[in-house]
């Protein structure tokens, strides 16, 4: 990651955090612990990739980033409500090293132990709902014409609801299936929705807002930025799958092997199951859904993935997708912000966390 | 209920149902059972009070109801997502005599018995989320200026999220408290949010849309319509509390006594606990949270509520609130639709279901 990229990411994150912190929407929420829950995830770090892409895309279009800031903040809040509901669905207790929303909310009242978890999950459903309202309230504060604000909201409903939530539902469905029954195509579609939709919207919507003209949504540049977001999302997700098995637990922040434990239908796993000899594939299947993983188990899984050629396949795919995302930006006029978007894409394949 | 009121309610319901059925938003959702779940509640009957109020309020403002139809449909979808999430939170298996969303969705895949309930609830969270996007997409199709559409959306976020969801959360919180610790004021506030917010928005937003002018939201007439919605909601809810104990199970559609079983802090219960002699209050408390209710239990509870004067108190309150809601409409110019709104208010106190 270049020094400039780091510096610009920090600037974008700082501005977005400030815009979120200054938004008064949650102040009217009662009980107060619910308002606190709404603010907790966005204040809890994270890469702020989506708002940064939106701001840089707007700037690449010649727009004033400060005018687009509410839209970037909206995108971060939108992303975070999906995490709140996701964490309920996945029954996760930790997010970025901190207790998830439903765990924090389970402690809000003095309740008997057996009622806490349900209370926390009920309140977290409502916190996620409230954050949806908050996201669109922020979006509406973007300094654009009324028509562009309506267009941004409508496209966020298309990408943030129809595509993203459908992807999330497909992911839940896949978690109930045998990975052997899932196609590469189905996984790609799911990822394009679950991870790709908001990156697509960030890049393309940023251009729309920067130009402040409704028909720019369908311009060649905006479409190219959408494709940039799609490819970036897939590359990002494949890198995540790689780090989930081959990463360094200290840097990655999630336990290595949790994808195996969940039997997650990653492209890495699908490739290995398909390309390993029957006995080895069976051995790999035996390493799914285990209660615990020793370092020997992880080492053996790594060997099997390597033997299947799946690591090389994944790395080739990540490079190809990163190339694709960079090529999509070719048509854009040169600018500092185009360069930042290119650097971001290249950073994502070298990241270790 | 007058013949005209019945006929006009039917017309409004028919138009709203058609607008919802023709909306293509859910068609892009995957998996298909999730799209089906989005359509199930709105197609499942209900009184359609909110859209009717919105349409009549718009017509009372001189607006064309057909132009406002998408907003009325949006309101019905918004109301229904809150029911989907509510039913998860309350762990209810039935809604209007049919299986709730999470129960239907639990059957979508062939899953082992112990995984079904969680899968159904996870998918129902997502169905409710998608319906939020759907509601605002419909709202945006209202035939109004861009500014009025933005204003409608912003006020729906204020009333539908901040007030309604806060009220829902307060209700969840109250269900964890001893009714003796809850004040009448807290219950009224909760009800004004949970039930009042959307009726307020329906009446006031209808006027705004009918006039198609942003500053009409704060006009004397729009404010009066908001107050009409507030009082109507409280009267409606008190009548619901009454029917929950004194209703006819055949007509009411919900088991009589379920409020007692949940220990629900209704104004009826709070009044009785406060006004009964200590021994009788203790006996009534003994009738809360029971596993089953015999007809003797219900009869005894009814006696205690009557002895406390709580039934008279409730009926007085319902009449007072209905009067208040009708008085709020005084300032409105006379019209067929003003009369329908008045008749609706008077119907709600005589209803048996």
The percent of residues in helical segments of chain A reads over 70%
Number of extended strands of chain A? 2
Report, as a whole number of angstroms, the end-to-end distance of chain A.
13 Å
Low-confidence stretches of chain A: none
The total count of helices of chain A amounts to 16
Largest interface: A-B, 46 and 46 residues
Main sheet overview of chain A: 2 strands, antiparallel
Spatial order of the strands forming the largest sheet of chain A = 1-2
Give me the secondary-structure topology.
The structure is a homodimer of 353-residue chains.
Chain A (H helix, E strand, L loop, with lengths): L2 H20 L9 H9 L8 H12 L4 H25 L4 E2 L2 E2 L1 H5 L7 H27 L6 H29 L9 H28 L8 H27 L2 H4 L5 H5 L4 H9 L2 H9 L8 H13 L2 H19 L7 H15 L3
Antiparallel strand pairs in A: 1-2
Helix pairs in contact in A: 1-3, 1-4, 2-6, 3-4, 3-8, 3-16, 4-6, 4-7, 4-8, 7-8, 8-9, 9-15, 12-13, 12-15, 15-16
